[in-house]
Amino acid sequence: MPSISLTNPLNITELRFNSISTQKLGGTIESLDAFPNLEEFYIIDHELTGSIPDISGNTNIGNLHCQKNQLTGNIPGLSSNTVLEKFNCFKNNLTGSIPDLSNNTLLERFNCYENQLTGNIPGLSSNTDLTQFLCYDNNLTGSIPDLSSNTALEKFNCSENQLTGNIPGLSSNTALVGFKCHDNSLTGNIPNLSSNTNLTQFHCFNNNLTGYAGGSVSSTLLSFLAFDNILSSSTVNSILAAFVAAGASGGTLLLGGSNAAPTGQGITDKATLSSRGWTVVTS
Amino acid sequence: MTIQKITDVDNIETTQEQWWIIYNDETKTVLLGPLQCSGYTSSPHVMVIGDTEKELLTYIEENDLIILIDYEDEL
Known about the structure:
Chain A is mostly beta strands. Helices cover 9% and strands 18% of the residues of chain A. In chain A, strands 2-4-6-7-8-9-10-11-13-15-16-17 form a twelve-stranded parallel β-sheet, covered by helices on one side. Chain B has a five-stranded mixed β-sheet with strand order 1-6-3-4-7, with helices on one face. In chain B, a hairpin with a 4-residue loop joins β3 (19-24) and β4. Chain B starts with a strand and ends in an 8-residue tail after the last strand. β17 of chain A pairs antiparallel with β5 of chain B, so a sheet runs across the interface.
């Protein structure tokens, strides 16, 4: 495949290569150095190979979208891209670690799911505008970072990795709509979710979680999947009681698999939820 | 191939090896699965149990059920 040589006689600030099913671009992107004022770069759903070019000179770039290609190699350093808002490179073959994001203080979306990324999730405490962090289906290790500064966070998905440690506290993440960390090796408690009044989905199944920090759950939370953990009967009972107290109807609550079975009031609470139109699974 | 369609889903037992889905019969929307989760399931919707994920994906296709996809392709 040839490389794509880009020149910029008109000082273009936005590059978009729209994909038409029969006309996909191949080859590699050698450099974006010809576009020092580039603000937006879209090259989505083509057949690009090679690595994402160095963008350290593209200090005005706000949006970079290279998803659905066949890109390999590491994600380049992003520390110079201080106005970067959206970085989407999902569904490629990227390797290496997620770069330091501490200078990307305007970052809103970082979506690199379905790659082969390794290493830790970097600290996200500087990314106070972050609304979406989706890095599921990679080979990430280490723990989920502290998210207490990410008060704008709406969607966080780091499922299908090899993460260990605890799920961090989510009491500051009041905008959170979806939190997914399933299919990892997480331990400790399911956090208190009483502050997450917009939460609709919480999926932590297939980990090694042993407890529930307690507290109420929002009536918006209609998909809670925590099966295949190591939850005791009393923990399962507590979760069922929290959902009964929330008073919502028509949700999904999966607590089966390797968890213990509910007992006593827990069995009654399961029946109560069923009568409210919930789909409930327990051991 | 052993597909079971259950319309009265009242503490239906599934094993760790079985795959299943839950779908809304009115909207023909798959609400859950295909997945493996052992235990006892109660639901107001329809449950379909099979031996493999492929069996259930075939069932979904042949019965024109809709799988909702979230998080995909967001800019």
